[in-house]
């Protein structure tokens, strides 16, 4: 590229015009000389513009989020209805943070996938190299059909079954993934405003990083779910779920074979924001879909914290995971219950209810929401 030195000379002349010379020029002449009417930047104006720009970025990054206040609360079940891992109650403090007011939707997850070409866990074959680390030595390699891309789909039974045997209503379905939550014949067309499901903990982490957010700790989640209420059973208070207005998308009737769907949604997701928000403005914090939290799961973690005997600031979970139901399989915490929850079965829409699954599991009733630190 060749420079036109005559142009450079003219520009230098103009930008060095003294102010009094400008005053002597006609308006037409002034209009032709940019140096006379374009203001120079000022340091204070520069700083102010940058601050404004940063504030507008901050405000767009917390769009759709609620600011959860800092607080101290007694974490765990406050009545006899909890499962063993919800005890003992222990005192926890959390700082203020931002939290998504809804579960992450299919539309939001689709934007992430479109921007990054991300492939979810359910869309990939199971790695035998990874799986064999979690099974007894010498376990033979399963057939390819069992390692093929697949995910867990709820299939109602035809009648009453032993509620301890979840294999009767959960099936690994080949081709089930976030775009096909119930299997290859299903789709999310028209469900853009439903929570994304069939996403693993790893997928949720990837989305959160992309969005400039993170997954909530279990303590943050429970504090947020309680919505400012003290020691009450549900995010809405103490009223039983089937009294008064419908409070969440759950299961009515006999689990796992007869969902009367009085709330309008038959063992499937509801669009977000169909039920009243809790005291902190969070929708569907109970029911609809389970929500992944950051923490490793241990059944005895609360007992460990209680033994310390001090106020714990935002515990981030144990260093390792242990679930006596499936020793040897590391798991992450899930919270909030889902459209499959029912008083006669799990009642996991209680604020203290805990659930767990391996970080590579996608399920038809599991999604997530994100949080962001307050700076
Ligand atoms: Ca329902």
Automatic annotation (TrEMBL):
Location of the Sulfatase-modifying factor enzyme-like domain: 63-372
Entry-linked Pfam families: FGE-sulfatase (PF03781)
InterPro entries associated with the record: CTDL_fold, Sulfatase_Mod_Factor_Kinase, SUMF_dom, SUMF_sf
Protein name: Formylglycine-generating enzyme family protein
Organism encoding this protein: Aquirufa salirivi
